[in-house]
Write the structure tokens for this entry.
Amino acid sequence: MLHLANAELTVDLLDPVAEHAHLGPRFCWGGYIWQIHDQHVGDLLTGPEWPKPDPVPRNGQGLPESFRHSTMTGQPLLWDGPIGLAPGAGQLGRDAEGNVSVTQPCHWETELTPTQAIFRTAQTVGHWSYEIERTIALKGRHLRSTSRLTNRGRTPLKFEWFAHPFFALQTDGLQVVTLPAGTQLAENIGYKLTGRTLTMYRPFIGVDGGHLEFLGLPTGQPLVATLTHPKLTSVHFTTDFVPFKCVLWANGNTLSLEPYLALDLAPGETREWNLTYDFGPAK
């Protein structure tokens, strides 16, 4: 495990070279934020299987991000016959049952200082070639995740990226989220949106007792959300881009807001974007 730390917080990052047991085809290996600890109140993040210390890689925990090789409905994005690509994880293949695995991981180089980690990788798979730089920077109680993607190939690089932060639930198993004015949510059995305030109708039970919905964010606006926390006054989560969709999901252990970014890079083109997390003081 790699670490960033200051007087307020410690950030645990998965080592993309040494910790393959926690990694797989779903989430980017470099810059994977596994846990954040407050120096006074302890762990701040959870996950679908929390507090299990070894969740299956597909579930994970913390603040992972994903360069998707297929859509949510299973439509291929970066596949050419039997060979696929999950940028930041590596070349993909399928077994006889159709299960996806990383057959050739990308190689990550890491630069680490006490409060910043930079992860770099470059890989060619089939007719795709790319570079990724991921920077995780800690300042006080503010954490920023920056991704920079470059298409090094001769063909367009067209796929999706999304963040999958796993926020802690309140001690009663519920969560309250403040969202941008004008956010919409269809009537459903899991969540209620009143003005800007999102609440859960009831606690979900366990790993499998979750519910997924899509938030209708205001047109042309980035995601800005403030969430309650069992140990902190709040957590503030923002993007510097306009998501083309945003998934809302929770189970009995966590709640996630998942902003999606559509990527369509021409040869030689670079795209950079940020996520920021501001962790309020301890209660």
